[in-house]
Write a structure and sequence with these properties.
Its main location: cytoplasm. Helices cover about 10% and strands about 45% of the residues. The protein contains four helices and 33 strands.
Length: about 450
């Protein structure tokens, strides 16, 4: 049974309007999220969620306000005001000096051309910078170097005190749309169709003088780069608006593999083909990428695809995973995926292995007369062995979370604490394991009864 609760702050919720009870469905026996908590506060589209620690997260969006929440209780911790336009980027980082204790901070960038650093413990504004000539589209923290980068018409390097260490000259009108950290003090910046590799270097004399040097431009994409993800210290991956996926070597920046036919049913013969006169770019755009050490998981148009890095091919897909574009996708610690879409849905998938049919026997006859039988037999045995050793996977829908009334922008996975989703309906929903939450409430009630009983005995 799917239970609805209302949350969003310390205020009493007695006057809040509760939704009717809904059933999650008996067919979703593997879906643990049977209870949800609705968090209210935002006045416009909520586009960003960032995790601060194991039980806190921040939300931000088009109203320019940042909220800090408790993921366990749904309590609103702080409401941060400082921006006058929508939030365009947000990133968490930890500040720690020689004598200072660790401080959890978040950086927010806005269309008002400012960047603000916030203290998550006190909710206060630590620092604000208003020297930007254009909107900052992305921010990335390089924890190892103790600096962070902002990307817009320029690529800027900052220290924790928001001192500008160095910057590039004006790149293009498109500006930097995405950044990813690479080994050897390098970063990859998506600038339109190009991928620019920059190297950062600090002064050897101990001063706060840094340099940022462009070392290479990669022009393999045919359209604007829409997504960028680091797999490990050896590999990173990019995706474009026309469905290109390119796997790069993170050390020498050479192209290792590519895929550009996600939407082509002939590439996936086990999938029922769709009859279409043409494929619009919107349906083939790579909206989001995530990865583990073995695979890259891509949100492409309405579908989700699993690309195996070792095999260099798509091993599983759901070409119509949602009714509209998939905006965000994440791999869970188990063999499950979660995806969310413009259609307002959040879905849970499990990557499963197909049962394969045995390989067909070697045909005999004409070729044996000319001595080709042995070669054919060897080739068929090799093919059969390869087929037996190459598992075939598929994605099965195991959960469908219906709660938002508009596009779900992204989500955060908190393990046993549940799932947080944000939407264009101005709401944040905490999805909970109903059995776990019920057990916790029973345990709390039992402790209170035990305490009251002990008090009565003392009296």
């Amino acid at each position: 049974m799917l239970r609805w609760l209302i949350g969003g702050g310390r205020e009493p919720q007695g006057l809040a309007e509760k939704s009717s009870v809904q059933t999650i469905g008996e067919e979703q026996i593997q879906n643990p999220y049977t209870e949800l908590l609705v968090l209210k506060g935002h006045q416009d589209i909520v586009r960003f969620l960032v995790q601060i620690d194991d039980c806190r997260f921040a939300s931000a969006g088009d109203d320019g306000i940042i909220f800090l929440w408790n993921a366990q209780t749904g309590e609103k911790l702080y409401e941060l005001h400082g921006h006058t336009h929508k939030i365009t980027a947000i990133a968490p980082f930890s500040s720690s000096g020689v004598t200072e204790e660790k401080t959890d901070l978040i950086i927010t960038a806005s269309a008002d051309r400012t960047v603000i650093v916030w203290d998550c413990t006190s909710g206060r504004q630590v620092q604000k910078v208003s020297c930007f000539h254009s909107t900052v589209k992305c921010v990335t923290v390089l924890q190892r170097l103790n600096v962070w980068l902002s990307g817009g018409s320029d690529l800027c390097v900052w220290n924790q005190k928001l001192d500008l260490l160095c910057k590039t000259s004006h790149l293009t009108d498109a500006g930097v749309s995405a950044l990813v950290e690479l080994p050897k003090n390098c970063v990859a910046a998506a600038v339109g169709k190009e991928l620019i590799i920059f190297r950062l270097s600090a002064s050897n004399n101990g001063s706060e003088v840094w340099n940022i040097l462009e070392v290479k431009r990669l022009v393999d994409h045919q359209d604007n780069i829409s997504s960028l993800v680091s797999v490990n210290d050896l590999t990173f991956v990019t995706g474009s608006h026309i469905g290109e996926l390119i796997v790069w070597d993170a050390l020498d920046w050479t192209k290792q593999a590519s895929e550009c036919n996600f939407w082509d049913s002939s590439v996936h013969p086990d999938v029922q083909p769709e009859i279409k006169l043409s494929q619009s770019p919107h349906e083939t755009s790579v909206q989001h990428l995530t990865s583990d050490d073995e695979c890259v998981f891509a949100a492409v148009g309405k579908g989700i695809y699993v690309y195996n890095l070792k095999m260099k091919r798509v091993i599983a897909c759901q070409r119509a995973a949602h009714d509209s574009s998939v905006l965000h996708i994440e791999k869970l610690p188990n063999r499950q995926l979660i995806s969310c879409s413009e259609d307002g849905s959040v879905r849970i998938w499990e990557l499963r292995e197909k049962q394969q049919l045995p390989a067909e026997p070697v045909p005999t006859g004409f070729f044996n007369m000319w001595g080709f039988g042995r070669a054919n037999k060897q080739a068929n045995q090799a093919a059969k062995k390869m087929q037996e050793n190459t598992p075939v996977y598929f994605l099965e829908l195991v959960g469908d979370l219906i709660g938002h009334s508009s596009a779900v922008q992204m989500f955060l996975y908190f393990g046993e604490l549940g799932l947080a989703t944000c939407s264009a309906d101005h709401l944040i929903i905490l999805w909970k394991d109903g059995e776990r939450e019920s057990s916790l409430r029973s345990l709390t009630l039992f402790k209170k009864l035990a305490q009251n009983g002990d008090l009565q005995l003392r009296l």
